[in-house]
Specification:
mainly alpha; flat
Length: 252
């Protein structure tokens, strides 16, 4: 007995807008609830984020605040971004709940693991930057400080730098998800991804040079994981394509 064609849920424009409003309000409430404890421990949170640099500074050196309000506004800004990261799974769940009724069953089956993987990989990218890249990077910076120059970094500049690096490494670790999506959507064939490995490697190093500070250590710290994740994305795309019977995997 053949299955009946799957139908998607339909609604009026007003009903969609109302649902979107409710989803956004729930997401904002989740961020607000996460922000309260983050703000309470904002100074401790900033001390934790600043630890990779403080551990590499010469003895007697510290971070400084050049702005009158920086001792308050900098931890406050960090608390907001920390709350956003903590609440991100719930925020994306609300987004998924809004979009899911418009997807077919087979699309939902692939979208859920990709969404979960993208969240996990973003967190892994942030952790990789904090625990592996920052210690090496800051040690390099402190050892290359010219003689007679005291390295006293402003806390606001440091936070901007750290958040930028977190964002760059978090996005870089999304490479496997991007590769899988390109293959499953039929935009790129796996064979073409494999054939163009050399161009991809060059492009990754150029992108890493643009996103990281101008030193070889930072560039390689971002480029090498990106390329390994690119290869991992090809492997995952091949596995998923075979399970789906996609033309991208079947064609020679």
């Amino acid at each position: 007995m053949s299955e009946e064609p799957e139908t998607l849920a339909e609604g009026t424009l007003i009903s969609h807008l109302l649902e979107l409003r409710d989803r956004l309000l729930r997401a904002l409430v989740a961020v607000g609830l996460a922000f309260i404890p983050c703000m309470y421990y904002s100074n401790d949170l900033f001390s934790f984020v600043a630890q990779p640099l403080l551990a590499k500074l010469p003895q007697g050196s510290n971070l400084i605040a050049t702005g009158v309000m920086s001792p308050f506004t900098t931890p406050f800004k960090l608390s907001f971004f920390a709350a956003l990261m903590i609440a991100m799974p719930y925020v994306l769940y609300q987004l998924w709940s809004f979009v899911a009724p418009g997807l077919y069953r087979n699309e939902r089956r692939f979208a859920v693991p990709l969404l979960m993987s993208s969240i996990l990989l973003f967190y892994v990218g942030i952790g990789f930057a904090y625990y592996f890249v920052f210690p090496v990077m800051f040690e390099f910076f402190t050892h290359t400080t010219p003689k007679g120059v005291s390295m006293m970094t402003d806390i606001n500049n440091y936070l901007d730098f750290v958040l930028t690096m977190f964002f760059c490494f978090g996005l870089a670790f999304e490479v496997p998800v991007a590769v899988v999506l390109l293959v499953l959507m039929g935009l790129v064939r796996i064979e073409k991804l494999q054939k163009n490995r050399g161009y991809v490697l060059i492009g990754i190093f150029i992108l890493a040079a643009l996103l990281t500070p101008p030193d070889a250590i930072s560039q390689c710290s971002l480029a090498i994981p990106m390329y390994l994740l690119y290869e991992g994305g090809i492997i995952m795309a091949r596995i998923l394509s075979r399970g789906r019977g996609a033309p991208a995997a079947a064609k020679p």
